[in-house]
Design brief:
Mean pLDDT: 82
Number of strands: 6
Low-confidence stretches: none
Radius of gyration: 21 Å
Structural class: alpha+beta
Strand order of the largest sheet: 1-4-5-6
Helix content: 25-40%
Number of domains: 1
Order of helices and strands: HEEEEEEHHH
Number of helices: 4
Distance between the termini: 64 Å
Largest sheet: 4 strands, antiparallel
Shape: elongated
């Protein structure tokens, strides 16, 4: 072993059948769609939200990204609920913006005024609701409510 390391050869562990971190279940690994009001938590959708829940299909503790989500967005608070599928426990938490790994500069007062002053407010809110992630929509509504 030490000779292999000295030569720059590092042993590669065999691939695991269980991913190291939480993962989104495959199409065949998820349960039946819960009911009306629930959305498929698809990574390519603006409704995607990375909420981690216990995997109810295995005996040892393993975490997964919830395959189904539901949103409750009110101006003063927002909540996201998650489940594995119909008949499984529902996990809820406050909806928060998704953290990013890059720098986001603060908005200047003239930019913030676009979020609060007509006629810009309605247009910007409509675009955000149609084009951006649900968590961002909730954040905008929260900001507008408390301003």
């Amino acid at each position: 072993m030490h000779q292999a390391m000295a030569l720059g050869l590092i042993p590669v562990p065999a691939p695991s059948k269980h991913p190291a971190g939480p993962h989104l279940p495959t199409w065949s690994d998820r349960s039946e769609h819960p009911r009306m009001g629930w959305l498929l938590n698809n990574v390519l959708s603006s409704d995607f939200y990375k909420i981690i829940i216990p995997d109810p299909t295995i005996t040892h503790q393993c975490l997964i990204i919830a395959p189904y989500v539901s949103y409750s967005i009110l101006p003063h608070k927002a909540k996201v609920s998650a489940t594995y599928g119909r008949g499984y426990p529902i996990h809820s938490r406050t909806l928060t913006p998704t953290p990013v790994t890059y720098h986001c500069p603060s908005a200047i007062p003239s930019q913030l005024s676009l979020l609060m002053e007509p006629p810009f407010t309605d247009a910007i809110t409509k675009v955000v609701e149609q084009q951006f992630q649900t968590a961002l929509v909730a954040t905008l509504k929260w900001y507008q409510h408390f301003q």
